[in-house]
């Protein structure tokens, strides 16, 4: 499995995953194309044997002190293997490189797996947006992460330092 920066050639496989992962509110190909080419976006794909099995995006305007996780999606067959966490951590590493202080995201209230991932990485709930996800009438949980605190925790973690416990 390999994480790499996404490019225009990845639009088709990203859109296939987008439609499969978010059937009722998938982004359009035009929206995704714009995100992939934006100077403020940073998108990565997860590849297995040359096949895109996941993608994630960060919107971080250069020089800004905050950023947003735009999306994370993993092919159903690849879920539960830590790939979502790897994508999220890569986005947060990029946010740290860009000297972002806070990262925000919205997660569907009916997605406890994603919510638990974000909480486990240090995100905290700061609000809710009622009926945000349409047409499903699902609330968005708004979450925030202090990037410096997250970075410090990552460098202090025995797991990330290669220490066996």
Strand arrangement in the largest pleated sheet? 1-2-3-4-5-7-6
Stretches with pLDDT under 50, minimum 5 residues: 160-165
Q: Give the CATH level 1 class.
A: Alpha Beta
- Share in β-strands: 25-35%
How would you describe this protein?
The chain is of the alpha+beta class and 165 residues long. The protein is built from six helices and seven strands, in the order E-H-H-E-E-E-H-E-H-E-E-H-H. The protein has one domain (2-158): 3-Layer(aba) Sandwich (Aminopeptidase), CATH 3.40.630. 35% of the residues lie in helices and 34% in strands. A seven-stranded mixed sheet has the order 1-2-3-4-5-7-6, sandwiched between helices. Helix 1 packs across helix 2 and helix 3 (83-97) packs across helix 5. It starts with a strand and ends with a helix.
